[in-house]
Design a protein that fits this description.
about 160 residues, Rossmann fold, 7 helices, about 40% helix, alpha/beta, three-stranded parallel β-sheet
């Protein structure tokens, strides 16, 4: 793998590559209005991450998690893919991106039309919720409505969070 120092060198490497894998993080979505985590004004100034262990062990932590996700969902769901998302989609469709790995849960790559069979969202997506007991997975809309109506931790029809 070559070291890339300029945009021209990047373009040259990309043109010569047989397989290109792209890794994206929060920075690709900030132009779409999705705040990152660490920057001034980022999400971690207002919310601290809830670990899966805390979520599983505590109703209070589950409520804290849902407050964070419920409040940030409005921003995420209103965001639209930007030029970078669209460029990656276009390059994938043209066969120039073999795989895109993203840390983002905002769904903007999916909404851009990026081929899903070549997308790995390593932290999942906020667009769906999944039951911890029965594994039922469904779009977030119903659980989000429950949360917005005052249910601190929306339950699955089986009764589990």
């Amino acid at each position: 793998m070559a070291t890339v120092g300029t945009l021209a060198e990047l373009a040259e490497c990309w043109a010569a590559a047989e397989r290109v894998v792209v890794l994206t993080g929060a920075g690709i979505s900030t132009p779409s209005g999705v705040p990152d985590f660490r920057s001034p004004g980022g999400r971690w100034e207002r919310y601290q991450p809830v670990t899966i262990q805390e979520f599983l062990a505590s109703q209070e932590k589950r409520a804290e998690y849902w407050r964070y996700k419920g409040e940030t969902w409005k921003t995420i769901s209103a965001a639209q893919p930007n030029a970078a998302h669209q460029a990656l989609r276009d390059m994938a469709v043209a066969g120039r991106v073999r795989l895109l790995v993203t840390q983002n849960v905002d769904g903007l790559h999916e909404r851009s039309g990026f081929p899903l069979e070549r997308l790995v969202a390593i932290h999942g997506t906020d667009a769906f919720v999944q039951c911890l007991r029965c594994g039922r997975r469904e779009p977030r809309d119903g659980a989000q409505r429950d949360w917005e109506s005052g249910v601190a931790v929306p339950p699955c029809p089986c009764g589990a969070p």
